[in-house]
C-alpha cells in the first residue's frame, strides 16, 4: 500500500477522475465526502444498500441537513460509480477482510463502507480487487480496507 494513501471513512477515489456529475440534494440529507449516494425522485440521498437501487455516485463535497432545507436547495458533485474508477473503502463488518475475498462482490454496510459478510451475486456491488490489512489500515479501521470498483451483474 502506498505511503501516500490516507485511511479515511468513505469511498476514496484512487485513480484519475475523468468526469463528475452534479445532483440536487433531498430535503434534510446530510452528506460527507466519500458517502455513496442514490437517486430518489430526482434528488440524492444516502445509500445504505446497493441492492435494487442504482447508485448516483460518491460524494465529492459535504453539506449539512440544515443546508438542505428543501429539495434542491443545495447540490452535490459526485463521482459516478463506473467500473473504471477504483476506490478504497473501509470494511465495516463482519471481520477482518482477507485476500481470500478478492474477486467477490459485496453490498454496503453503511453509506461509507462495505460489509464483507454480505456477498452479492446479482445486481450492483463493490468488487474487491485487492485488500489492505497493513498495520496502518487496521489502526484506522479494525476490519481493514477493500480496494476495488463497482460492478453490475445481471440475471441470466
Would you summarize the structure shown here?
The protein is mostly beta strands. The protein is built from 1 helix and 11 strands. The strands form 2 sheets. A 5-stranded mixed β-barrel has the order 7-9-8-10-11. A 5-stranded antiparallel β-sheet has the order 2-6-5-3-4, with no helix packed on it.
Give the overall form.
globular
Helix vs. strand class: mainly beta
Which percent bin holds the helix content? under 10%
Order of helices and strands: EEEEEEEEEEHE
The percent range for strand residues is 35-45%
Cα-based radius of gyration, to the nearest Å: 15 Å
- Average pLDDT, to the nearest integer? 93
- The largest sheet has its strands arranged as 7-9-8-10-11
Q: Low-confidence stretches at least 5 residues in length (pLDDT < 50)?
A: none
Note the main sheet. 5 strands, mixed, barrel
Whole-Å distance between the termini? 37 Å
Number of helices: 1
Work out the number of β strands.
11
Helix-strand layout with pairing:
Layout: E1 12-13, E2 21-24, E3 36-40, E4 43-46, E5 55-59, E6 75-79, E7 87-93, E8 105-110, E9 113-119, E10 123-132, H1 135-140, E11 145-153
Parallel strand pairs: 7-9
Antiparallel strand pairs: 1-7, 2-6, 3-4, 3-5, 5-6, 7-11, 8-9, 8-10, 10-11
Report on the architecture of this protein.
- Helix content is 4%, strand content 41%.
- The mean pLDDT is 93.
- With 156 residues, it is mainly beta.
- Strand 3 (36-40) and strand 4 form a beta hairpin.
- The strands form 2 sheets. Strands 7-9-8-10-11 form a 5-stranded mixed beta barrel. Strands 2-6-5-3-4 form a 5-stranded antiparallel sheet, with no helix packed on it.
